[in-house]
Amino acid sequence: MATLYYENDADLSLIANKPIGVIGYGSQGHAHALNLKDNGLSVKVGLYEGSKSWSKAEEAGLEVGLVADVARDSDIIMLVIPDTSQAQVYRESIQPHLLPGKTLMFAHGFNIHYKTIVPPDSVDVSMVAPKAPGHRMREVFTRGSGVPGLLAVHQDATGNARAVGLAYARGVGCTRAGVLETTFEEETETDLFGEQAVLCGGVTALIKAAFETLVEAGYQPESAYFECMHELKLIVDLLYQGGMEYMRYSVSDTAEYGDYSRGPMVVDEHVKDNMKKVLAAIQDGSFAREWIAENDEGRPRFNRLRRENAEHPIERVGEELRGMMSFLQDSE
Fold first, then answer.
1. Please, how many CA atoms are within 13 Å of residue 260, restricted to the half-sphere of its CB?
2. Maximum separation of any 2 CA atoms in the chain, in Å
3. With bands split at pLDDT 50, 70 and 90, how would you rate the model's confidence at 1?
4. Percent of the chain at pLDDT above 90?
5. Can 97 be counted among the known catalytic residues?
6. Angle at 200 between CA 139 and CA 298, to 5 degrees
7. 119 phi-psi bin (left φ>0, alpha ψ -120 to 50, beta other)
8. Can you tell me the mean pLDDT for 228-237?
9. Catalytically annotated residue among 30, 108, 113, 154
10. What Å distances lie between residue 284 and 112, 113, 185, 288, 307, CA to CA?
11. Which of 102, 106, 115, 171 is a good FRET partner for 21, with 20 to 30 A between their CA atoms?
12. Alpha carbons 295 and 302: distance in angstroms, whole number
């Protein structure tokens, strides 16, 4: 059985007198820093000189300093900058200040799992990974609740790594919803697989293929967009709220029968075989090496793929249709 932790399992006093450095102030960084601050903890944001986020963090009432200075002055250092930047920032600004007994934390296990960052044996290395985008994490926290999170300990030099990690999870609000114990390996590999096979890659590829199938068969692109893109949110909301059974209860019997009988025709064993290939590339590190090399070379393939996908017909049709949906603008 999975191990889950809640408020009563986490002792916030363990980090009450420990200076915390949050390195980065993007989607995750701002939520971590502000939630910790609101819980009465001593937090400082570490940024590079000239960062556009510097003034935003100060306006939010946070103390800000250069990464190296924040790392030097902090007992707990949380890295919430992009995976591709972490190794360089770590080497240049954090590693020199990792004194014995400090805690180095991550919100994603990529760099530890693939060994682009190898901390000294004398420090604790742990992870608290909230399972929500930062703006959602912050929004839920300010309403008195929290988002679920993951906890992992890679290195326990002090014997307190798990307890300190749990205290941090409470500080950012995750123990309000539940924190699942995992490992850096499991978090990294399942997170990458979920993004590639379902949440981003799988979903967008399925939408585009369905859109193209309808348009090529002579149906209006606008009708194809509504059926294959627009209505997806309605289904995802039902899945999010109550799982597959609740979604099927909420749709028509015709839709439910089509789900059971035709879904496996679309996502068949060939798709599952391809998913296994995707997972294998994550497990053996070849995806990580590919992505690191892509960044080292200036992202030529990434930029080309971004341009090509931005030019897909579904994007043009969608932009026009969304422009007529005033309720979307009202919700921004």
1. 9
2. 67
3. confident
4. 96
5. no
6. 100
7. beta
8. 96
9. 108
10. 15, 11, 11, 9, 29
11. 115
12. 9
